[in-house]
Known about the structure:
Elements: E1 16-25, E2 30-39, E3 44-48, H1 55-61, E4 70-79, H2 93-99, E5 104-107, H3 121-131, H4 138-151, H5 158-161, H6 170-182, E6 188-192, H7 200-217, E7 220-225, H8 228-234, E8 237-242, E9 245-251, H9 252-257, H10 262-269, E10 317-328, E11 331-342, E12 346-350, H11 357-365, E13 372-377, E14 380-381, H12 391-396, E15 397-400, H13 414-418, H14 420-425, H15 430-443, H16 460-472, E16 478-482, H17 490-507, E17 510-515, H18 521-524, E18 527-532, E19 535-541, H19 542-547, H20 552-559
Parallel strand pairs: 3-7, 3-8, 5-6, 6-7, 12-17, 12-18, 15-16, 16-17
Antiparallel strand pairs: 1-2, 1-4, 8-9, 10-11, 10-13, 13-14, 18-19
Helix pairs in contact: 3-4, 4-6, 6-7, 15-16, 16-17
Amino acid sequence: MSTSVVEPPTTTKPVLSARDLRIATTSGYEILHGVSFTLQPGKILALVGESGSGKTTAGLACLGHFRRGLKHTGGEIHLAGTGDYGNILDLPEAERRKLRGGSISYVPQDPALSLNPAMTIGRQIQEVLQVHHYGDSEEDRRARAKEVLAEVGLENSETYQRRYPHQLSGGQQQRVGIAMAFACRPAVLVLDEPTTGLDVTTQALVLQTIAELAERHGVAGLYITHDLAVVAKVADEVVVMLSGEVVEKGSTAQVLYQPRHEYTQKLLSAVPDLAGRRQVGRVAVITEEHPAINLASGHVTAVQALQIPPSSEDRSNLLEVAGLKLSYGSNKVLGGIDFSLARGESMMLLGESGSGKTTLSRCIAGLNDDYTGIVRLNGHALSPGTRARTAEQRQQVQYVFQSPFSSLNPRRTVCESVEVPLQMSGTLSRKQRRVRVLEALDQVRLGESYLDRRPGDLSGGQRQRVAIARALVNAPALLVCDEVTSALDVSVQASIIDLLRTLQAETGMSMLFVTHNICLARHISQRIAVLQHGRIVDFGSTDEVLKHPQHEYTRELLANVPTI
Length: 564
C-alpha cells in the first residue's frame, strides 16, 4: 500500500518540525512508525485519518504530551522561537508544561472540556494570561481578554465576560476555547476535531475564525480531523495517516483532487456530498428520479421499494404530531410543530444547535414529557412520558443516541446491553432473549462472536451498531436516530448509513433521522423538515428542499455546507 510521499515546497523556516516520531505502548507495541511533518507560519496543515490512525497521538506529541500507557521511543519535535527550544521532547516535563498555552496551544474536540463550568469566561481567559505571565498588570490582561474575544467574533463587554459556559451555545463555547488558545499569541495551535459536534453555520464561523487568526498573526496550525470536506475549506497542506504511518503528503489541492494513495481515495469516496453524486456505503443514493441501484451487482436493491408509492392501506400515517409546544419558563423551545410520517418513510429533522430538533425527537419518544400537543402512533394518542405509555407503545418507538461511547454501560456485555428492552417487557425466557439478541446482532452485521464482548473491546462504529441492535431487538415501527453518525469517521459513517437504509428496507420501519449534517440528506431521507427556533420553516421532499429551498434559513444552511 505504500506510495511515494511528496513533501510540499517550503519557502520559510518551519515553526514546528516532527522528525521520525515514534511512540509505543508501555508494553512495547509501536503505534507511530516514524511520522514526519512540518508546520509553516500562517499556514494550516491538516492531519487526516480514521480512528486509530495515530493522528491525535501525533498531535498531542507536538505538545510534548503522551496519553497514559504511551511512551516516546524515537524521533524529535523541534519548536522554533525565542532562543529556539530544540527538541522539546528532551525538555523536563515542567519545562514542557510552560510551553503549553504559551508558545503552543491546544483546542480539544469538545469545547466543554476546555472550559471550567464554575468560572466566568472572562476570568478564564485572564487566568490563562496570568499563568503565562502575559502583560505587566491586571489591566493589560483585561485588555487582552477583551481584544481576543473580539478577534473570535464574540461580544467583549463586561456583561458578556461575566457569563458562564452553560449560558453559551456550543459554537460560542468553542470560540471561547479558541480565544483562550490564542490569548498568549502562540506560535503553534493544535486543533483536535474542533468542529465535529457543530452545525454547518457555526462550523463555518469557527473555521473562518481559525483561518483568519492563523493568517493574521502568523500562527502555524495543526488541524486534526477525519472530515475531508472541512480540510478543503481550512487547510493549506494535508498529511494522511494510516495505522501510525504517513501514507500521503502534499498540498490540499493535490491530496483532495489528485490523491495518489488508495487509502486517500477510499476516504474521499466515503464523504457524503450534497448533490448525491458520490456513493456512501454499498447502496446507492435515494432520489425521487433515480431508484437505488446496487453498483456492485447492477441490480435494483430493496431500498428501491421505498420509492414505490405504497398501496392506499400502507399509505396511512404511522406517526402524527399536532401542535407540539414546549417552553422552559419564558424560553420557548418548540413553538407548535405539525407533521406526519408514513409507514416505511424516512424523514430528516434538520437544524442548527438550539433549533429544537433533538427536543422534538425526545418528546416523540417519550423521553421528555413537558410538552403540550398531541403525538399519535397508529392513530392512537401517546401519553407524554414513556412511563405512562403501554409496553407495546414503548416497544414500537425506539431511540438511538448520539454518542456510541456513552450510550452503552461499560460493565455490561453486548448481550446484556442489547437484551435490556426484552427484560423490561418481561415476556421471554433468558434463552429466548439470547436468540432474539443474536438475531438483532445479525441484523447489524456483527454476529455471535460479539455476544460476550464489552464496549471497551469495540470500535466507535461497532458500539453504534450495538446501540442500533438494542433499538431493533423489539422490532420497532419507528426508529429515532439522534446524530448517530456525528462522532464517527467518514467510512464508518458510510457503513452506518448503509446499514440503516438496508434495515429500513428489510423491516419496513419508519425513521426519524435527527442531524445537523445536511450532506446526509440524499443518502438517508425521502423528506426533510428544517427547524429554526423551534418551528418548521421548510418542509418537503428531499429534492424539493435541497433544489428549491423556500426559507432564507435553509438557503443559508446550504450555502455553509463544506464541500470537496
